[in-house]
Amino acid sequence: PKSLHFDRIEGYDVSNTQGTNASVAMVTFIDGQPAPQEYRLFNIRTIEGPNDYGMMKEALERRQNNPDWGQPDLLVIDGGKGQLRAALSVWHWACPVISIAKDPDRLVFAHPETTKSGKVSYTYTLLKLNETEPVLQLIQHIRDEAHRFSKKQHSLRRTKSLFQ
């Protein structure tokens, strides 16, 4: 079998409080290591109220408007099937997109199927890996870093809004 190698992995996480001061973090790992100079934040502009799926879609659409940032070899979305479905609905670049669901951590893979009408639908596979598996540890690190980065931006926005 062909070995998979991902030079550039991007991880995404949404942070908001009941839909306010929402931001989506993009963290980038190059050769398995965080590359903070490549991190980006997307302050959500078009979504009112709590809508994590819509927020993720907005960020990924805006991300694809910036091909000069480099193109990822893998996208990791924090969340389960719903977040993965939202990401896949707007992601048009040719790279795999997976998500990581919590409690317990497991990877979610989507398998596209084209219906007779030409629409794409997905079936999903959930994969629970042993906690000692390096691939799971890397994806957890990406997820945790995206979560930390998005929370930091959300807190800054929330604090700033208190003084406006």
Element layout with pairings:
Layout: E1 8-17, E2 20-30, E3 33-34, E4 40-43, H1 52-64, E5 74-78, H2 81-90, E6 97-101, E7 106-114, E8 120-127, H3 134-162
Parallel strand pairs: 1-5, 5-6
Antiparallel strand pairs: 1-2, 2-3, 2-4, 6-7, 7-8
Task: Write up this protein.
- The protein is an alpha+beta fold.
- The chain is built from 3 helices and 8 strands, in the order E-E-E-E-H-E-H-E-E-E-H.
- Strands 1, 2, 3, 4, 5, 6, 7 and 8 form an 8-stranded mixed sheet that branches.
- Strand 1 (8-17) and strand 2 (20-30) form a beta hairpin.
- The longest helix has 29 residues, at 134-162.
- It starts with 7 loop residues before the first strand and ends with a helix.
- The mean pLDDT is 89.
In a few lines, what is going on in this structure?
This protein has helices at 52-64, 81-90, 134-162; strands spanning 8-17, 20-30, 33-34, 40-43, 74-78, 97-101, 106-114, 120-127. With 164 residues, it is α+β, with helices and mostly antiparallel strands.
β-strand amount: 25-35%
Name the overall outline: globular
Mean pLDDT rating: 89
* N-to-C CA distance: 57 Å
Low-confidence stretches: none
Helix content: 25-40%
Order of helices and strands: EEEEHEHEEEH
Number of helices, counting only DSSP H or I runs of 4 residues or more: 3
| Category by helix and strand content | alpha+beta
SS elements, strand count: 8
Nearest-angstrom radius of gyration? 16 Å
What composes the largest sheet?
A: 8 strands, mixed
